[in-house]
Amino acid sequence: MGNYFDVAIIGAGPAGAVAAALLNQRGFKVCVLEKQHFPRFVVGESLLPHGMEILAEAGLLAPVQAAGFQHKDGVVFRRGDDCAVYDFNDKSHPGPSTALNVQRDRFDKILIDQVIDAGATVRFGESVVAFDNTDVYARLRVARENGQHYQINAGFVLDASGHFRAIPRLRGWEMPAHLPVRQVHLTHIDDHITDPAFERNKNMIVTHPQYRDVWLWLTPFSNGRLSVGVVGRPERFAGISASANILKKNVHDVPMLADLLANAVWDNGFPFLYLSGFSANVKYSHGRHFALLGNAAGFLDPVFSSGTTIAMHSAKLAADVLTRQLYDEPVDWQTDFADALNLGVNTLQAYAEGWYEGRFQDLIYSQRQSPEEKRMLSAIFAGYAWDKKNPYVRNAQAIMM
Description:
Helices cover 33% and strands 26% of the residues. The chain has 401 residues and is α+β, with helices and mostly antiparallel strands. Strand 9 and strand 10 form a beta hairpin. The longest helix is centred in the C-terminal third of the chain and has 25 residues, at 333-357.
């Protein structure tokens, strides 16, 4: 069967690249279908230490480390006069303690180029327009940019299509998110920060002085630029006409940020971008001949920079379960994939909800934390949200009640 693959993967972002790399390493015939052409811009620019060990296992870390991206070893939270620094080098989990801030156009291309070099089939400019899983293998109908269609048959399909959610859209499985609708307004600026106290190796999360459910991020890059964004309910930005104005106003609402970015160049050719309703959910995360990875299975909130890490973690889980299945070993996708993934996702969701309600912000800034409690929180911020040994993972729901 000429167009048969052991695994077809929809989407060539980090989840798709990690899954393809792992499965290709293990000797399976893999095809990645990507509707866009790389490089292309997407959000999700902040990697976490846990993601670095997944990249290493997939054989993708070395070229990423060689690319000159911004080193990162922690996160700084600011709320008025409150400041809390969480250093990934001082965390309760023994895994890697450093990560990178990456421009996603370059980062994603580096990953998928490695997958191509390793021998996997990758096809750009091709979209999946139909999915049939009723036979002994899955059938994908694929549309090329020239209007031609063809069919791929695969033993299994991994949907790593991100916010596009290819299989859920085709099957009508998208559902409203549990979190309220929020907007994101962002851009990249030439920051020209001269304050010696600014730690370029740490991201900054800043709560708006008037609205505790509005926050801003600063994600430094190695080229003198900074990703800056603001997140909030639509009513918080009512009456302001454009993303540029919304973003600049909210930056200047925070005196510390206004001073820090006093010399910034905002109009540098990079667009001001707007996202709305980024949180999502789906009816099924796996089924006959398929599983959903990363954002294709739902997205929580960008507050802890966890989106790319969740995507890569889901890719590793799925690749491990699928490897056993393809070797005819018994597997339980609900237990070994969905439930295992949801351990970390539910932890992060509990803290995201607690963040907007204010309880988690109070915990972050609490002066009553013991050093060990702070190390446990630092591990979560570093992406180790699946560590059952950490009480802040094990008891997240109870802590936020």
